[in-house]
Specification:
single chain, alpha+beta, Nonspecific Lipid-transfer Protein, Chain A, 4-stranded mixed sheet, 5 helices, SCP_3, Bacterial SCP orthologue domain-containing protein
């Protein structure tokens, strides 16, 4: 299987920026292709930042990746699975939602001892014009 192309940070930022009005409840859901692009690029970025095959991160219906260092999983359902919807995922990616709050609110299903992605999230911080970006 050929290696995936590196994600260009500017391409990721542009793709995710398109979804910001929706994430901020100021616009309807983006076009399917725009949402798919933002989810796929952000998952591929996570895959590069947390290389490994211990956790499977699923954002149906768009994509899933295996990441996080540790024991490699090769068959069947992995012991460490994170699954969420596109809105929640992109909110985590942009820091609009914390990992802890998402898990507490049951917006994320995280099973397994290594299924905590808080170390790698948010992937980027961007804001709509006039919106301040929270600093950690």
């Amino acid at each position: 299987m050929p290696a995936r192309r590196e994600v260009d940070p500017a391409e990721l930022r542009t793709a995710v920026s398109v979804t910001l009005p929706w994430l901020n409840d100021r616009a309807p859901r983006p076009e399917r292709s725009e949402l798919a692009e933002a989810v796929r690029l952000s998952l591929r970025t996570l895959e590069r930042l947390a290389p490994g095959r211990t956790v499977e991160v699923r954002v149906p219906p768009f994509s899933a990746v295996q990441c996080v260092p540790g024991p490699r999983h090769t068959r069947g359902t992995p012991p460490n699975v994170v699954e969420t919807d596109p809105h929640t995922w992109l909110s985590l990616v942009t820091g609009k939602l914390s990992w802890e709050r998402a898990v507490e609110a049951e917006l994320v299903s995280a099973s397994g001892a290594r299924a905590d992605l808080s170390r790698w999230l948010p992937l980027l911080r961007i804001a709509e014009p006039g919106e301040e970006v929270a600093e950690e």
